[in-house]
Structure formats: C-alpha cells, structure tokens
Amino acid sequence: MADRQFVVGIFKEEGPVVKALEGLKWYNGSLHHVYGPYPSHSIHRSADDLLGRKKSKVGSFTLVGGILGFLLGFGLSIYTASQWQLIVSGKPIVALVPFFIVGFECTILFGILGNVLGLLTQARLPRFKMPEYYNPLFTGDHFGVVASCETADMQGLMAFFRETGGEAKPV
What's this model's pTM, rounded to 2 decimal places? Predict the structure, then answer.
C-alpha cells in the first residue's frame, strides 16, 4: 500500500457525510474509517456497506461463556457435595435440582464475563495510540471520513470531499 495516500474529509453536518459516503461507492477511493461526535444510523448504514463489515462475534463469546459457566457451576456443586458427603434430610448427595441453581447463576456470571471479553477483543480495546489521521474535532462537533486512493488521484479525492461540502486534508 505504499502507492496509496490517505485523505481526511472533515464535515460539520451529517447530511454531507452520507452524501460523501454514497459518492465513494462510485469513486475510485476506498473508505477506511468514519468518525463522528454522535451515533448516526444513516452514516452507520452507508459506512457498513462500503467497509463490508461482517456480523459481530460478541454473541459467540457470550454463548461460550454461558455454556462454560453452567458446566463449571454444575461441576463445582457436584465436586463439593461429593467431597463433603453430607446427607441432608435423606436426599442423595448429588441432588441435581438444587445444583441447577448454582449452574444457572454461573451461566449468568460467565456469560457476562464472556460478553465483556468479546466486546474488548472485537472492538480492539484499549487503543493506546490513535491513528495519525485522527483529529480531535471528530469527538467535538465534526464528522471525519478517512479514505485512500492512488497517489495520482489524490487531488481528485480532495476535490470530491470539497464538492460534497467538507474540508479535505491529506495525511
């Protein structure tokens, strides 16, 4: 990617950003990232189409955590009961019905922990270093669209961002 240049489009309003994202589909540039001061469904939908994002894997982390939690909780209850060998009211030592409660609680606990782990790994958090094209304006009141193009086409991409209502800065 040595012959590709990054261009950052800085926009003040949401409408021109959506217009620029729709235009990038037909333009010879490729979208890398979109920044915004607040979530926007129209921007999100347009950016997902261009970036080709896949379905999140966070749900799989939650499912695996829940199953693992149930098995660990149920196994811990059986192991503990078999080690102490306490007979309560003539019930069997390994009484399955009460052990489901511990398994259920561990399902919830490990499901939540798996969800948090999935969120952190899939969102690549924490991010210790911001990309060089990031601008602090993007968390204030401006939107940012980062695209790349061939070196020879950089002026055209900058003109495209200006035509759609934003500023353009090369990186």
Answer: 0.72
